[in-house]
Amino acid sequence: MKEDARNIAIVLLQYSVIVKGMERKLLDQGYNVKIITENLPHLKEQIEGTDLFIVYLPGDITEDKVKQKLLGEVCAGIKKGKKPAIILGERKNHVELSRDLSDIDDFCWLDRPVDNDTLFESVKNVLEGKTVGGRKRILVVDDDPSYARMVREWMKEFYKVDIVTAGMQAITFLLKNPVDLILLDYDMPVVDGPQVLQMLRQENATRDIPVVFLTGVGTKEGVERVMALRPAGYILKSTTRDNLLTYLKNKLGLKGKGPT
Question: Does residue 226 sit in helix, strand or coil?
C-alpha cells in the first residue's frame, strides 16, 4: 500500500463482480483501495482513515427495504464523519432514493454503467472538492428555511444543492467549498444580500462566482435597486419551478445537466 496515496473505500450492499474490476483499475491509478461488504459493523472505524467512499448500489435497491435502510445508515455514517462519497446507481432509482433518503443529495451520484474515464475524473474532482459527476453545485442563501428547502427540492434532480440560512454562514461555507452559482436572498437580517455580495467580491476565492439575487419585489424600482449592484441576475421568489430550472440551465450553460 502506497503511504502517500489517497485512500478509497468501496462499500458494497451486495457482492458484485464488476466492483473487483473497479478495484483493480483504481489501484492502477495509484489509489489505496479497500472493499467494505454488506457486513458493515466496522464502518465507523473506517471513516477516519478514508479519503473517499464509493457506494455501489444493487439494481433492486428501491424494491428492498432492508437494503434501503442499510443504505440510509451508510450515508448517515459517512456524512457524520464529514467524508465525501460517490454513489453508483441506476438512473431510474435516483429520484426515488433522493425522496426517501435525504442524505443521498449530499453526495455525488453517477449513473451506472459508468465508464472508467468518467469515474476517474469524478474521483479526482470529489477529492479536490470540485463540481462532480457533471452536476453543477449551487448554494442557496436564504433566512427562510422553508423556502430554501422548497427551492432545493426543485433543483436537486439536476444540481448539487447546499443551503445556508444566514449571510455570514454563506461566507464561511464558500471559503471552504467551491460552487458554480449562488442564489442569494436580497433581504436578510443582520447581514443582507448586498453586504454578502460585497464581501464575496473582496475575496479572491469567491469574487468570480456568479451571484443571482432572490427577491420578493418585482416593481421597476425594486428591480433597478437590485440590478444596480451588478449581480449575475435576479429571480423573483414568486417564480415557478419550471421557470427557475430553465433560468438556471441557461445561466450555467447547456453543457450542464438540467431539464430538457
Answer: helix
